[in-house]
Amino acid sequence: MRFHGMEILGRFMKKDHVTCICALAAAFAVAGAGRMYSQEKKDAVDAHKIVHFGDLKWTSIIKGCDLAAVDGDLNAEGTPFVLRLRCTDGSKIPPHWHPTDENVTVLKGALLVGMGESFDEAKLQTMNVGNYISLPKEMRHFAMAKGETIVQVHGAGPFKVNWVNPSEVQPPDAAPPAAKPKS
C-alpha cells in the first residue's frame, strides 16, 4: 500500500511539474509578446506629427475666408484629412455641399450655420468655441462668421466644395458689394 501511495504522489508531482513548465512557457510567451507590442507602440510614437499654428500655409478661397491643410491629402480619395478655415468677422459662405461627410469643430469665434439652398439669416444657428457639427454628404448648407472665426474640418477625401449658385461666391480679391441706394 505504501508503494502504491508513492506511485500516486509521483504522478501528481509529474503533473505539477508539467503544469509549472507550461505556466513558465506561457509567461515567457506573454512577456515576449509584450516586448514586441511595446516596441510597436514606441515606433508608433516616433511617427507622431505636431503641426504648429504658425506653420500653417493659408490660401484665400473666397472673400474673407482662408483655408490651410493641416494633415492628409485633401484631394486623395477615401483618405483622412484635416483642414482649417479662417474667416473674418461677417464673412458669408454661400450655400454649398460636399461629396463626402464633413465634420466641423469651432476653435475660435463663432460660426453661424444654416441648412438649405439659399442663404437665409433666419435659419442660422450659432456654434461657439468647442461646438461640433457633422454634415452628411450632399447636405446643402451655408455659414457666416461672428468675430474672427477659425474652424477645423476633418473627413475622408476628396474635399470639394460645390456651390449651389456659383454667382453668389465672391472671389478673394473682390471689391465689397456696393451699398444699395436709399429710396
List the helices and strands and how they pair.
Blueprint: H1 2-46, E1 59-62, E2 65-72, E3 80-87, E4 92-97, E5 102-115, E6 125-127, E7 132-135, E8 141-156, E9 162-163
Antiparallel strand pairs: 1-2, 2-3, 3-8, 4-8, 4-9, 5-6, 5-7, 5-8
What does this entry look like structurally?
The chain is 25% helix and 36% strand. By secondary structure, the protein is an alpha+beta fold. Strand 1 and strand 2 form a beta hairpin. The mean pLDDT is 84.
How would you describe this structure in keywords?
single chain, alpha+beta, 183 residues, 2 domains, 9 strands, Jelly Rolls
Number of DSSP helices? 1
Helices and strands: which structural class? alpha+beta
* Total number of distinct structural domains: 2
Q: Strand fraction band?
A: 35-45%
User: What is the fold named in CATH at topology level of the largest domain?
Assistant: Jelly Rolls
Give unreliable regions as ranges. none
Which descriptor suits the 3D outline?
Answer: globular
Give the CATH superfamily of the largest domain. Answer: Jelly Rolls
Could you say what the CATH architecture of the largest domain is? Sandwich
The ordered string of helix (H) and strand (E) elements is HEEEEEEEEE
Biggest beta sheet attributes: 9 strands, antiparallel
The overall strand count is 9
**Level of helix content?**
10-25%
Q: C-alpha Rg, in Å?
A: 30 Å
Mean pLDDT: 84
